[in-house]
Write a structure and sequence with these properties.
This protein is mainly alpha-helical. The chain is built from 6 helices and 2 strands; from the N terminus they run ββαααααα. The chain is globular and about 55 Å long.
């Protein structure tokens, strides 16, 4: 588990119940799941064949906000001496292991985690947050602008995996023939 003080060091307003994920007033993000009123998400969880709206993250905090909050957290504790790329990578891998442990022995898990308790969802949210925080800090230490790197990588993926060629297939790009 990532070392934190357990308090909200968030300089950004973190009122989860007021952040609409789709601009409407019936779907809200609470940092771990989508809660729907009369919207389609609840229908899908109840077996309705209607297509649910795709989950969306809240718009805040941004990746830069997360980088800044973690940098402040680390600076306040004089931990930069320990937060070198190799150490951050190993810590992140440890956190990924903690995420994997939550899924271990459960078999297939349905999207949206309908069989998970609120406590299990919150535990997952904490562990995924640890992974993200370490990833962002590792990128900072390696001087990788993650949002821009994602844009470049997605452009490469579109070239490797053109939808017209790979639709519905899970093969690696090297297995496709022109």
């Amino acid at each position: 588990m990532m070392a934190t003080n357990g308090k909200d060091d968030c300089a950004v307003k973190c009122d989860a119940t007021s952040v609409s994920s789709n601009g409407s007033n019936d779907t809200f993000v609470d940092n771990s799941r989508v809660e729907a009123g009369p919207a389609s998400h609840s229908k899908q969880l109840n077996g309705d064949s209607g297509r649910a709206e795709r989950f969306r993250f809240s718009s805040e905090p941004t990746v830069e906000d997360i980088r800044r909050m973690q940098a402040e957290f680390t600076d306040e504790r004089d931990w930069n001496q320990f937060h070198q790329p190799r150490n951050l990578l190993l810590a992140m891998v440890g956190e990924v292991g903690e995420v994997a442990e939550l899924f271990q022995w459960r078999g297939e898990v349905a999207e949206g985690l309908p069989d998970w308790t609120d406590s299990e969802r919150e535990h997952l949210a904490h562990e995924l947050s640890d992974v993200l925080i370490y990833l962002v800090e590792l990128a900072e230490k390696c001087r990788v602008d993650l949002p821009q790197a994602v844009l470049r990588k997605m452009a490469l993926n579109r070239l490797k995996y053109p939808a017209s060629k790979v639709h519905g297939s899970s093969k690696k790009y090297t297995e496709y023939k022109d």
